[in-house]
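Everyone, carefully examine this protein record:
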Amino acid sequence: MILSGILHTSLGGFTVIRGVAPLGELARCSEVNLEYQRNLIDTHKEEIEHFLADLAN
């Protein structure tokens, strides 16, 4: 099969197509699914902002 290695079963039996994409493109396409995602905890948001700011320096 030509797609061997590209098709993969993941996360409880879902069939997915494996590949790569720039992080910005993934973020642009991302949608919140409240069935399994919780709201962002404000203290975690601040920690992430500080972490990213430190990386930029």
